[in-house]
User: Fold these one by one.
Assistant:
Number 1:
Amino acid sequence: MIVDVLIAAVVVACMALVIAGVLAYASKKFHVEGDPLVESVNDLLPQTQCGQCSFPGCRPYATAVVKGEAEVNQCVPGGDRTMKKIADLMGVEASQMDAEDLGPRLAVIREDECIGCTLCIKACPVDAIVGAAKQFHTVIADQCTGCDLCVEPCPVDCIDMVEPPKQLAQWSWRAVRPNKTRQKRGGKVET
Amino acid sequence: MNLFDRFRAKFHGGIQPVEWKETANCPIQRLALSEQYILPMKQHIGQECVPLVAVGDRVLRGQKVARSQAYVHAPIHAPTSGIVRKIADNPIPHPSGLGMLSLFIEADGLDEEKKMPCLADYRNIDPVLIREQVRMAGITGLGGAGFPAFIKHRRDDEFPVHTVILNGVECEPWLTNDHRLMLEHGQQIVEGLDILMHVVGAKKGIIAIESNKPDAALNIQQCIADFSQDMEVRILPTRYPQGGEKQLIQVVTGKEVPAGKLPLHIGVLCQNIGTVKSIYDAVVLGKSLTERVVTISGPQTPRRGNSLVRIGTDLSFILSQHGLTDLSEVKVIHGGPMMGELLPNLHVPAVKSTTGLLAWHTAEFEKSHEQPDPCIHCGHCVQVCPVKLVPNELASHCKHDDTERAQAYHLFDCIECGCCSYVCPSHIPLVQHFRYAKGMVAQQAREQKFSEESRQRSEAHLQRIEKEKEARAARRAKVLAKQKALEEK
């Protein structure tokens, strides 16, 4: 009788050992660096690195959202669409946007006023400004995310944030909007 | 055509709009030379061209003035002899009113021409050379889409072309330029078809003409009779949008071009009548594409007709030559009324894809745009859609910015023919919804790409800063160690 109990105990112990081994191996082999959820949230963000969410970049904001330290409605350039997507992913209720988005922006350096201090180059989070010390700098328009971060450090205020020029390749048909006034069948005008 | 063929040869849906083809009796007339010609650097599908000439250069008619390094492009040629005065941004005939880099050529009135070598004996010439000639001549599809023609003229061992179809359908109301070409240049068109059949090695050539152009069909039939045994004229019942490439191929061959595939994949080459005429001009006469036939019509045009227009002519000049000088109360459509686009600005040049200019009085034009009522789900749009979509459902997804579901409803198979908008009893601008949604999808793809690139740049930036920091720390440690060593000594 006691022998039966012992055999059962030994068998179960052996099985536990084997399974523990497999699990230990698997956790080493399939180890994931970082939180995959942070990656997914980061992928949804527009990557302007503008810091308008009060975090120093898109990934830090994504990390904060996943940790629950930030709301989902803080990404200004992402707008409503991004907010809804993040809310969907995180399983929280979508709320109102924190601040109004001004639309796409582009930094332009007034080159004849630039003194070549390189401060804006250091401030640019996506390396979209070229130039060297005591040579004027310029913004690579195709790579500028319009984050505004280069404006503040400029000692001579020669950087303007402008609306990017309209390009044919990026033009598309606008949405059909219903007219504000509408003749109803009874002849009443509904506004 | 036997009874069975008649039954089979049909595409789904379609409509029969009022024809208004009153310019069918107006012979093609050469438009007077203008003083200035403006050539936008992109008049085709593909890469934008780069100017080959500089300001102050004298150019001759037919001289290549712009080209691109890319495969998919069509070079641009000077429409007359003159001096290049300016290279600058200029609006193009486009609903946005936006512009692109353009060449301004001041005509000197001499109209001196530079020609390519003639390949009149084309039957004994290597097809590759003829294809190259068509490419050099800058020929694009003149039916409106503007796809570089030479790309289709490929001999592919995997997909040999057995049939060349000439598209003489011209199903858009008002337009009659292909009709006139078939009447006046039947011989050249038939010979152009022969060139195409030689280039792609096709055994059969079919010229498809709608039943509303019996005179054109008769003329082409006579031209074929004393030319070749391998060609035939196919008269099709009049129905819009039969001139769409895939619709026409289905009607003529009974085979459907699968979604996302090309006519080449079922062994067919389809080319528009105007394109074939310019292919003839390029191969036999050595002329580059510098002019095309444009139908100038519409209720507001006093002298309606078909004009042979040099590429780059100002549209307001063309209209003034047809008696329309006061442009203040006029709306002009570029292309046909079904698929054409309203122009916000008439001081733009005619381009290779200018098939027609149709003028309406502003008041009349706006009267026809009634306020949309709600969809009553009558299903008329479903019945007429030539690509078998469900336009009402699709439009409601587009309206609510649900691009994912719109794509699941095959948004990108829509050819924007306008049949659904035409029949809608609630006057819902369905095509406008689809165009908007297509633009949105493209916009989202651009944003996605940009944010991915920005992320990579930002990561590279952070990595570099990290590295610099480490390097500084290492240097400082080295200095400290040195100091320590000195002190110990």
Number 2:
Amino acid sequence: MGYFIFRRTVGFLLTLLVVSAVVFAVMNVLPGDPALTILGMDATDDALAALREQLGLNQPVLTRYFLWIWNALQGDFGISHSFRVPVSELIAERLPMTVSLAVAGMLFTLVIALTLGIGAAARHRKAGDWGVMFMSQIGIAVPAFWLSMLLVLLFAVKLRWLPPGGFAGWSDPVAAIRSLILPTIALGVVQSAVLARVTRSSALEVMRQDFVRTARASGLSRRRVLWRHVLPNALVPIVTIVGMQFAALVTGTIVIENVFYLPGLGRLIFQSIANRDLPTVQALVMLFAAIVVTANFVVDLLYVVIDPRLKART
Amino acid sequence: MNRRLPVNFIIGAVLVALVVGTAALSLVWTPHDATQLTISNKFAAPSSTHWLGTDQLGRDVLSQLMAGARNSMAVALVAVLLGGSVGVALGLLASAIGGWVEDGVMRLADLGFAFPALLFAIMLAAVFGPSLTNAVLAIAFINIPVFARVTRGAANQVWTYDYVLASRAAGLNRFAISRDHILPNIAAAIIVQATIEFAVAILAEAALSYLGLGAQPPASSWGRILSEAQTLMYIAPQLAIYPGLCIVVAVVGFGLLGDGLRDMSDPRLSRER
Amino acid sequence: MFELDDFSVSFGSGTALRYANLEIREGDRLGIVGESGSGKTMLALCLMGMAPDAATISGRLSIDGQDMTHANERLWQQMRARRVAMIFQEPMTALNPLRRIGDTVMEPLIVHDGLSRAQARMRVLALLEEVGIPDPPARMRMFPHELSGGQRQRVLIALALACNPALLIADEPTTALDANVALRITDLLVRLAHERGMALVFITHDLAAVARTTENIVVMYGGDMVERGPTAQVLANPAHPYTKGLLGARPDPTAPARDANGKRRRLPTLPGTVPPLSALPQGCRFSGRCAVELDYCATTRAPDHAVDANRAAACHLLGGVKP
């Protein structure tokens, strides 16, 4: 087990390193002059030279890469050109928004998907099952940004129940939660649809196993068998998917924040692209990629906790 | 095949035919020029000349949607073909050579999953500026690991078949065997995957264009039309409805078609559904 | 206590159980033998109220005089574990792999008997002791994959006994186990039934095991109960052609397990195979494979004919007609 964790940790760190190299390569090595990108075609040669100096573009690529990594590890992602403040400050300011949204989306997804998936499995080949399968087929196909617009049309424009966008921070928790409801639903529906299907087929597989019969034979109610025996076993394969889904939710926030005008990292990325603020874009892309890789790593470790058989084998 | 066609295949095929047919039709005919501005006739209600009305610049909505279908199909086709062929080639190579090459390719594939198309498109847009080409490249890129995995998995199985072993024994080289025996055998699995990835690509293109990282004005793309419609949601909510429906129909269509093809090509692959 | 009257179970494709009549009284030890597909597992599942949803049930099943034929799930939940419990064929997969042994056995005690965790724990320790598991406190903390097949079957027996059922059904409890482990499990079941005054239904195709464990026997074929009577008498002097065939197919215990070439010796079997449910003959299920068949056997079901005071067999040949 120790060896397993060690191996996974090494793999995780290596992956992070390679990912950082790819991000750096795309942003710096591909043909194109970052200084020119930032300042635009009509910049003077002096301004370009000064910016190159400031960005350290005159140093060898490898030196710049390792310097970037080294600084990033200490929380220093350079200075944002457009905001004229350290990128780390920008991130710290906006991270809570994005994390709130992603976590809310994950909770929404888990609650909806597990309930629907297990429920559908329990009603295998009956109306409820078909209903869930149909809804999930549609749910998978609905673009999150379009769903957002529909939700805003209905709940903000027509019914006026919820705000159409914006987020004023957690100082007023009620208002904060109200502004998070629509974005959370829009973010979570697609992933719920995917996870509900996986949960259903995983649960159906578990329900065929002998121990479920044993549990029923001990006079346990269907509901108890379903939630206490089937669900935990069905979760084992689900965990991988959930890890990937958390990653998808985190990147999904980029879209959703732009639809609902939420001041998070996703908005920041687009502002930075518009401002040609390469250091900020680079730091944010790296951050998002790191979250994706980390989510998958955490899932690997979770397996050991969930499945006692794995402890013995690894 | 004596079994009935699966329901999901039939529904999927009908929807796909509808979308592809519309896209093809738009090449030769649309009710109006999709980019023709008639400011005097903005926000027109549906009528016999403009079946779905006009938008904020007086453009014909139906014509735009038809052009959008063409754009969607073209992007998905190029992206899946591009990413798919690189992925399949890598998968075949990994399977044929094995050993550290296989390990390396698969580790790279794992890595590819760390980059959602959106992140890749963001990087490209930041460096080169947003364009449809960059969006296509980004979508193609995320398809590479997907196809590499599927191909390698399926190919590894075929390598154990007796007649493949026999042709190895007969002295054929591994690349010739990959081309002549492995590829035809795993074609079904690849086509199924491609159909499903087609649906994913349509969604990705819509999202990227919506965010301004894909199709640029005045090109018609469902995602881009939606981003324009969003600002007009209070005035003309109907403009936000149709393009979304188009996306859903196209994605559901290709998704069901993929499921159906999988059920038909190998019933064992289709999980209890 | 448990009674079946003309109890039948059918599916769209055929009949799995036909006109079963059976009475189980307190402390009975009954063997049910037959090949796979004979309906013996279906019979057991019906006694647990666990027939598949698709099954159509007719006739009557009663427990303690209460009609349970079409009882709902809630009623059955009351019966299971307390009146009737069951252990299954595959001890390797019959335990929830993610649960500790202790938690698994404690669950029915907490759910049905309303015990606290501490009380349930004490009971489980006693139960594990009773079924012969060494060092119960340590085993309670283990997961199923840490136990051997025999140990797991003992745990399953402890689980089945937790709420003191009046009847324990053991469905081929030893098939998946090594021979000497199987023997010990069989003896354990008999001992427990005896000590607790509990009825035992022992389902098997192993005639040696049935001879060791039971007083009475029912022989099943193709969903019919073809012969019944005291175990020793039936095995010594079978009346139904199928029982005769089955006994003939019994492996010779004195023959070495491997032949001269070191290959595993194949067990002798009846000629032919049990047809699938949908292809069973309308009349006597055994017609077609029977050596002494009459012309109307395939079309007319044979009623039970008394062989002597406490024995019966469902064969036309016993109805006074001589071949």
Number 3:
Amino acid sequence: MGLLTNGNAETVDVQKAINTPDYCRTDSLYDPLFFQAPSGTPGGVRPGLAVAAESNADATTWILHLRSGVTWHNGKPLTADDVVYTIRSWGSPVSYFQPLASSIIDFKNVRKLGPLTVEVPLLRGVAAFPSITSWYNGYVIQDGTTNFAKPIGTGPFMFKSFTPGTSSFFTANPNYWQGRPYLDALVVNSSFTDDPSRLNAILSGDIDIAPGVPQALAKANVGRMVIGNAAGPGFIAVCMRINEAPFTDLRVRRAFKLLLDRETFVTEVFDGYATPGNDCPGATLQYWAADIKAEYDPGKARALLRAAGHESLTLELLTSPVVPGMVESGTLYAEQAKAVGVTASIRQLPPSVYYSSSYPAYATGQRPFSVNYWNVMPPSLAGFYLEALNGHAPFNETAWGLAPGQDTLFYDAMAETDPAKAAEKWHAVQELQAAQGGYIIVANVNYVDAYSYRVRGIETTSAGDNNNFTYRTGWLA
Amino acid sequence: MLVVTVLIYIAVQVLPGNVAQIVLGRTATPQRVAALQASLHLNRPLPVRYLDWLAGMLTGHFGDSTAALAQGMTVPVWHAIAGPLGNSLILGGITLLAFIPICLVLGTLAALHAGRAADHVISLSALSASALPEFLVGTLLIVIFFTELNLLPPIASVNPGQTPLSDPRILILPVLTLLCISTAFGTRLLRASIVEVLGEDYVAMARLNGVRESRVIVRYALRNALGPSIQVIAQMIQYLVGGIIITESVFNYPGIGTALVQAVLVRDPQEVSVVATILAAFYIVVNILADLAVSLAVPRLRTRL
């Protein structure tokens, strides 16, 4: 398997996994309480190390029932102590899960109820709590783990060696609770510094799988390798911070959502590997409002801007080539904005600093107008809104929820345990978001992977690249 | 050399973004970045960090990769770069071994046919190849030898524990790329010095005395072109120090250039400054050695006029 390198910053530490090379490894070595599941699965997850989770009526306290008969790579059995230790570790400042997890979990009161039963009290009701536990940094580690030099998991593959920025070698876990993987070994080659050489490596037979491939390269290689392609919740959006001028004016926000022809983004920026956005994040997830459609009406946009006193408007649009399509989306948006009298000048930042706290800092008032991407998120609307769309969200790109009352609908929907009522409430949340929110989702971007012709049993699904990095089901023909 | 180390150290520090911000990525809050910087000692004054680092370099202690430390692991820089350094020496060495005879042959041929068709063909084609950047030449070679002919691998992947010599086929395209670009200047320099020598009175004398032409070339022309040749080889090595970085990236060759690109991508100040210093030191040493070798090979330079 071939991946773009993250150099010496690569890790097999679950708590610090942060990008594709890390996820490939940690997802193979460890298991979560619940697995991310493809679209259509209620709750967005299927059981992992937890066989079931039940909550009280307002979803504020959860009881997790753990799977019996699971053993760690060192032979110890999985116990409630491991899970209590894991959940508490999510609140540690070294864990990248901490910003999200600490916004909902009452860590002090997490406790073991029995040998395979754990109680998790929450700070507020989250009906989709199992989907939150499926997050990469939440995979279950053994009680007392502090050192990840020789990781011990319960996952389908066992650790043999790892050199950051180069490669790692894992072997099949013969005692895996879902059955021994068909593959004897998994080699993750993360030495690649560009995408074309990764795809050349598939053609030459050096690697068999390349997760996450730029759309243009995928299109160019159709017929030379297998291109996996599945709609998912990822997207690219032009983001307005709704508490910064001129976006404080709702008419400006509406105009900025009306001025773009989203079909052209799908074809011109993403080569067809995408669908038009509707400004509601979370396509393919449960309760996502597929019926809300974005309007394209430059005439109306111009009228709204005129009414707001902005017949001509000049502003700066920040972007960066962090993922393919981000710069192109900004450029195409600026192009289409010209037609309604908006001059958006593109300013590119280096990808290494784009998602950082250096000036202009990410998700702050220093970036009133910017292009952002999301390609992974906990598989529920609650998961995404907790990350980015509420007043306390760690990645609040659009400054949503800072005005009083803006989050009321969301907290109510998130705590609703009755599926029919939850669907209604989430719809109301999304109507508000589409009408007033700061996200202009130019396209929901598909997961696109490349495989050699001999790979079988591994697919790209709405759960993510390589079915969320699930390699235990694969074999080579 | 001291000036170079200061420049390298400062250049690494003024790159936009620092390792704490980059490793933390989206999860970076100002508090977390500050805490991580403090734990990595990145919050100490620049001169103090520089002196610490310089002392380490002088005593052969290259320190630990900052990016790895930021992720809570200890990866000594030397451990991370020793393998790639060896791989790069293999690539550079083989290129140099092929470079010398090619330049001698082409340079001599061009000189003997100076002003005629063969000279123009050699000079022009070498010159146009050298005008192309490495990534373009590399990509063209991949298109020809892999995509079209399917003869050679497009990727120089080396399995852990092996060296590039375990599968020499992977070396062919990177070596060809470097040669395409460097042959021109070597050939041109040699051609010029041989043309000059051939115009000397003692060559005309030898020819008039009936010395065979092949003997004239080997004994008179090439012997006297030795000084320039050493300069050419030194320049070639110096070119390789830079050219290898881009070429390795194109072919994903696991050498020091790829390691440097990786380190820059994650803003690993320790690894970047160590690699850059090693490359700079190598460059300077080659220069000094070449000057010494020339003065040994050309007695004239050792005598005061």
Number 4:
Amino acid sequence: MTVHECDVCIVGGGITSAMLAQKLAELRPSARIIVVEAGRSIFDRENRGRYRLRTLEYGEHPWPGDYIEDQQAEGIISMTMAVGGLALHWGGACNRFSREDLRLKSLYGLADDWPLEWAELERAYGEAERRLNVCGEPSPYPGDERSTPYPQPPMPLSYNLEVLKGWAGQSGYRFNPLPMARNLKPADGRGGCCVFDTCGDVCPSGARYSPDFTFRQLMAPKRIALHDRTLVRRLVVDDGKTTVAAAEARHQDRPDEPVQYRARHFVVASGYCWSSHLLLLSSSPRFPNGLANGSGLVGRYMNGHRFISATAEVAEQTYPGQNMTHSLISREYFRCATGQPFVRHDLRVWESSAGRTPRLRDDGGRLLVGDELLEDWRSRTKGSAVRLRAYVDVHPSIDSRLTLDPAKKNRYGDPMPRIEHRLDAATEGRMAATRAHVAGVFGRMAKAGGGRIVSTGEGDYLDHPGGGCRMGTDPATSVCDSHGRTHDHENLFVVGAPTTPTGGCTNGTLTFVALTLRSAEEIARALPT
Amino acid sequence: MERRTALRWMASAAAALPFTRLRVFAQRGELPPDAVATLREVAATVLPASLGPAGVAEAVDRFLAWTRGYREGMALEHGYGHPCLRFTPASPVPGYVAQLAALDRAARAKGGRFATLDLDTRRALLDAALTAAGVGALPRRPNGQHVVADLMGHYFNSSQAADVCYQAHIGRQTCRLIAVTTKRPAPFQADGGRR
């Protein structure tokens, strides 16, 4: 058996892991930090332009080998398991939650409060935005005040979005450019934005932040060690104590040879799915329900937000394709007056080519060829299509769960996770009213701008999922405290998405990072200076 | 091994391969000349004549380059929300060859090569072929269902075609300065959009 010893063993190699490792290495330069990631490193930045072209031309996956075929979960939203995690191919949206997210119980009698003050999270947001080099401008809404400016000015609006901002603004809602983790100019070893417009697939210049850059920067001067292609299968507790002694792992190339990590502190930074999974897998006679699970809540309260979309037709002329991955956001409905029917959601606007793409046959079914096809297409490009979307705040029930599925096992015989999201009764009870409200918002925008809604839809999964190890002050009703320290094991932390009690009503990544940076301070306090 | 020695070794190893295997390999990625000739005749009908002969030829060349660059068994995008693992299927080229040969036969049955037929006849032949292949819409990317639909989809869904349609230099998914995108796309000049 190979044994590695360190001060901090971080399990998982995604964005929260990268941010945690970076901050710990700054706060405690002498600390020995090992990041263990099941997937492989894809550090060939020089090939990303080619990968992008292959994706555009052939639909090939732009991150070769970023998955492990027998390490997959039922109900997961992405197969990616590699250094960088889902943030290899995120869009870069960096919205903040609002203070209401932290006080749902106090303000509205719904779900639960988060066990931290808004001022603490707000400060961490500022740090997260600095580390991710977010471009943005302050929200025009009262209640969205910031203590620090964005590190970069906002992403300049494309001509199309400028036109659509004028259209959308007629509704009375106020819109901003979406804050994004995109370099406007080269910075921090990454390139500047060239509007390749494939942020959600791959960014050849590295302008859109991805954690592989951070890991490379930390590895070169040996500030951390990264052990990739190494799957941590379970955490083991010290005999007679409640502290975690070791993480047991296997390397893909040496599946028969156990690898053990011994550390003063263990941090599970494996995202919303694999964090709960590891804790449940780590059961033993002393801890038959898995680690950190004295409350029985590991794998419960799995959260996220629903999303409702629409396409509008408007008279204003745009030219689809200028910057389709950028959008406008309104925070009009981030806060809901108490005593009113509860509804919270963000509001986004994108350019769109819906209904304005070339077609093979006309309305009568006649085959179109050559210039007549081009003319048919051109005749349908007058005015614009607009993509609208609202991420709706919904709350999980205790039965929104991640469980171990005995029917699906990996090569080592470990049962794989199954995620089944369920909403609490209050959320279910108001969903019809929520849908009607959002439809009304879309309708108001269309009417005010002289357009019309031509289609609507609703997602069938929860986006930006979190939960499974929710934070709280009471060990009977939560898994960890606000720093991610588990109630049951003083040297075991969980960070990021799994710790969130609720999923908010906008993209979650910035919040996951901010919470993690706050955890880093607590973990550093426990390390020798 | 010296680089030159390695190259010589690779060349001799390639020469030792059975000719038939090389031919099969070539067939999977490369359309034979007679198929290319038929494709170019069809292209003159299905692609905009307003591109001019050179523009149509260039669009066909790009499609042929696409077929040469096709790789079987590559992981496709997993998707988000409900991801799944899928791989690129076998090369569409053998199917294309058969479809082009069938079009050529059908054209000859109508009295000549495809290009010599009147537009209604050409349209009817294409309609029948696409209907028989179950093509309902232009594919976003070539999918092997039918070579004609794939050629059309490859061109009409390109960034260049969008610019031609809008008569403006949008440059969708091309590398460009952010500042360029903040302005209304410049209209095409008399050069037909070529810059």
